[in-house]
Specification:
The complex is a heterodimer of chains A (about 325) and B (about 475). By secondary structure, chain A is mostly helical. Chain A is built from 14 helices and 2 strands. Chain B has one domain. In chain B, a hairpin with a 4-residue loop joins β3 and β4. Classes of the chains: A mainly alpha (about 325), B mainly alpha (about 475). Chain A: Belongs to the cytochrome ubiquinol oxidase subunit 2 family.
Chain lengths: ~325, ~475
């Protein structure tokens, strides 16, 4: 048996770790941002309830982004520089959006009644800016960080669709965490945003193979098509089931209140798996591979040791925190 | 202005804004744990009132620190790609360990600390408070490891212009880490001491004599009085360590141009960097030699030793260092005087008087002033190096157009200025509101949906009997 070659495998382990962190981020902070995007549609009392549905979690959810960028920075420093300097403005929009969103949680709860609408608006604007910026970055990345006008147009389309996807998963989280009038509203929001989510996934699925012959072959060559068929089939199936279910929600006794969230998380994961398959083994599409961009083996090894110990602990206490604040959201109080 | 200067200003603006908030949360986390533990032990509701007031300030500061910290982590890639490309093998793991051991811990347990006091037992809530405090301190540890390594790098070798780690123990425990870490943690303690004393003094001025407020007033003053002499001692040690490893920085702090014995301690001067001399100099003969070498005849390095053959300056800019250092020291000695006078007054009379309160209120921000001045001293003092002797700042900057950096810089400055104003006004508003309603209902009673925490009910009951 050939000896396991760490130097060869470490970059791929870190690429997988980064992918995992991005996926967890998109699902978890996705619903936080989505609730921010939906917040102008709710009345004042409902806004408070929506914020309390994410208040204890958003900070930890956002940390997955820090981990993802951290892994990119740590494991693939060259790619980190290329991607972030190319996407300089969307990154700045993302950061300012995250700043406004993050501080709005605290400020809206502490300022006078007169000043509260200002911070509610910041919460909405910050969430929307962050979602749009992330979508724009995704769209650019899919087209190989191209900066032509067609690529910009495509990136704008993806930006809108990702914001809609976040709104959808935010609505799904509200269906789980709320009841009564707000829950009914959330169902309507979910149904209204699903069309754009489907459009976005379809657009990326079509644009990616068209943008690159390599990706075309990878998806439409034989026998790959057969192995990959479950990805789109499952995605379409989940969409159909979610659409049909959401027409009937809320059910008797609030059954299946977590199902829309799970279905959307599944759809996100499937879409992500598709992207990963398209771009592997590149970290900057068509330019830099995972192996070329990787840091020194000894540096990756020392992080991996820590990660293997710490990541399960983080996952464990994160789940525990979600359980502590499980059930329907109630008003948040500091005491 | 060129992209390098704009990128430097942008990074300085980001880090200056960011550092304000960890400086508060590191020590405030431990102070909250202290309040929580005292309440667990004595059942004195004043401790819990103090906890619930200051946890709001903590939450606000924490959010400001988190969002600006994320900005920092992206700045490496957007503006300084050369940094990670050349020393990423060392900086990367240190930052990764910060995320893994500190960020998640703080972020997850913060939710429980803020909103969980009626959902978990007193023991778990205390544990969450401890883990948040521990997390913020771990975070500071890793950041200061990286920062200290950038000042006093060791444990690596350069191959093809890229640094490779050879000894992680040497990297982590680099020569300036102990001094820098202690100096920063004490700075955090002092910042919180004066913030707590200042905000309590504000409440006192609007006639809030609640037990919780008198308690925090006394705690802040006492903490300040204890920590400031320790800080002066630690700062002196840190200076001697800097003299050993970065003599050009000390020479610039002292505005000393020529190496020699009996160097005066300059109280005031305007350094003239063109003529390479000081104007309007007022100094104590032999003072700098005495402080730096503990001998008035000791030889102190001068800036003229750090000019290359071709005239390139290998020392940092003198004027900002000279003044930043003096501001830090000046604020420090003001703290010493105020904290000791205030502590003496409150221990003798059990109360403060109006003049002291009027001094304490603006002193609430003295920790920020000293921290920023100290931070500029040490960071500008590393120039022209980004990593001393390894990587020049000008070699790490990204090839962005100056216009792009200018636009984002303006946007960040606008956001930061707005947030600072909002932050300060909310803290003042919280203080005034708390002063008007000093006795809130005990937790859990107005909340029919949730069972009151049994441990808390016992503790409160004991308080009511006592």
């Amino acid at each position: 048996m050939a000896e396991f070659d760490w130097a060869l495998w470490l970059p791929y382990i870190f690429a997988a770790l980064m992918g995992f962190a991005i996926l967890v981020y998109v699902i978890l902070d996705g619903f936080d941002l989505g609730i921010g995007i939906l917040s102008p549609l709710a009345d004042d009392a409902q806004k408070d309830r929506m914020v309390s549905a994410i208040g204890p979690f958003w900070d930890a959810n956002e940390t997955w982004l820090v981990l993802a960028v951290g892994v990119l920075l740590v494991a693939f420093p060259v790619a980190h520089g290329v991607i972030l300097t190319t996407l300089y403005f969307p990154v700045a929009v993302l950061l300012i959006g995250l700043i406004l969103r993050g501080v709005a949680f605290e400020f809206r709860a502490k300022v006078s009644v007169a000043a509260k609408p200002v911070w509610n608006r910041m919460f909405f604007v910050g969430s929307l800016m962050s979602a749009l910026a992330q979508g724009y970055m995704l769209g650019s990345y899919v087209l190989g960080l191209d900066t032509g006008w067609a690529a910009v147009g495509f990136a704008v389309l993806v930006a809108v669709c990702l914001a809609a996807a976040y709104a959808a998963i935010g609505a799904a989280w509200l269906i789980h965490k709320t009841e009564g009038e707000l829950q009914k509203k959330a169902v309507a929001w979910l149904r209204a945003s699903l069309g754009l989510v489907a459009l976005g996934m379809a657009a990326i699925s079509l644009a990616t193979p068209l943008a690159s012959a390599r990706i075309w072959d990878r998806w439409l060559g034989f026998p790959e098509t057969l192995f990959l068929a479950p990805l789109p089939v499952l995605t379409v199936g989940l969409f159909a089931w979610l659409w049909q279910l959401s027409g009937k929600l809320p059910l008797e006794g609030d059954r299946l209140n977590l199902a829309p969230f799970a279905a959307l998380a599944g759809i996100f994961a499937l879409g992500f798996a598709g992207l990963a398959w398209s771009f592997y083994p590149y970290v900057v599409p068509g330019r830099i591979t995972i192996a070329e961009a990787a840091s020194a083996t000894e540096s990756l090894a020392i992080i991996l040791v820590g990660t293997l110990f710490v990541l399960p602990v983080i996952t464990g206490y994160s789940i525990w925190a979600y359980r502590i604040f499980g059930g329907k959201a109630v008003d948040l109080r500091y005491d | 202005m060129d992209a390098l200067l704009l990128s430097r200003i942008q990074f300085a603006a980001n880090i200056s804004f960011h550092i304000l908030f960890p400086t508060i949360t590191i020590a405030l986390g431990w102070l909250l744990l202290w309040f929580r533990l005292r309440f667990n032990r004595t059942g004195d509701q004043a401790y819990m009132d103090a906890y619930f007031f200051w946890v709001k300030v903590f939450a606000l500061s924490f959010a400001m620190g988190v969002v600006s910290g994320i900005t920092m982590s992206f700045q490496f890639g957007t503006n300084w790609p050369g940094f990670m490309e050349s020393v990423g093998n060392i900086a990367g793991p240190l930052l990764a360990y910060e995320v893994l051991t500190a960020f998640f811990l703080e972020a997850v347990f913060l939710g429980i600390m803020l909103f969980g006091s009626r959902r978990v037992s007193a023991r778990v809530h205390t544990l969450a408070t401890f883990l948040v405090a521990f997390g913020t301190t771990m975070s500071a540890f890793w950041i200061l490891v990286l920062n200290s390594w950038m000042h006093t790098p060791q444990g690596f070798e350069i191959r093809d212009g890229v640094a490779y780690a050879t000894d992680w123990f040497a990297i982590v425990f680099n020569p300036s880490l102990p001094y820098r870490l202690v100096h920063m943690l004490l700075a955090s303690g002092l910042t919180v001491a004066f913030l707590v004393a200042g905000v309590s003094a504000l409440r006192w001025l609007v006639s809030d004599r609640s037990r919780a407020n008198m308690l925090t007033l006394r705690t802040g003053l006492t903490l300040g009085a204890i920590l400031i002499p320790l800080q002066i001692f630690a700062g002196d040690m840190h200076g001697l360590n800097t003299l050993e490893h970065q003599p050009q920085k000390v020479a610039a702090m002292e505005a000393n141009w020529e190496t020699g014995p009996r160097v005066p301690l300059i109280l005031f001067a305007i350094p003239d960097e063109e003529a390479r001399e000081n104007r309007f100099e007022i100094g104590i003969p032999g003072g700098a030699s005495l402080i730096l070498t503990h001998d008035p005849d000791g030889v102190v390095p001068g800036l003229n030793d750090f000019v290359a053959e071709d005239g390139t300056l290998l020392h940092p800019p003198v004027t900002p260092l000279f003044f930043a250092f003096r501001i830090m020291v000046g604020v420090g000695f003001t703290m010493l005087f105020v904290a000791w006078a205030g502590s003496w007054m409150i221990w003798r009379r059990g109360d403060i008087n109006r003049p002291l309160a009027y001094v304490l209120v603006p002193m609430a921000l003295s920790g920020w002033a000293a921290t920023l001045a100290g931070w500029y001293t040490t960071e500008i003092g590393r120039q022209p190096w980004l990593v001393s002797g390894v990587l020049k700042t000008s070699d790490a900057v990204s090839a962005l157009p100056a216009g792009s950096v200018g636009i984002t810089l303006a946007a960040y400055l606008l956001v930061y200025a707005g947030l600072i104003l909002a932050y300060l006004s909310v803290i003042v508003a919280l203080a005034l509101k708390a002063a008007k309603t000093p006795h809130e209902a005990p937790p859990g009673i107005n909340d029919p949906g949730i069972d009151p925490d049994p441990a808390m009910a016992v503790a409160t009951g004991r308080d009511a009997r006592g």
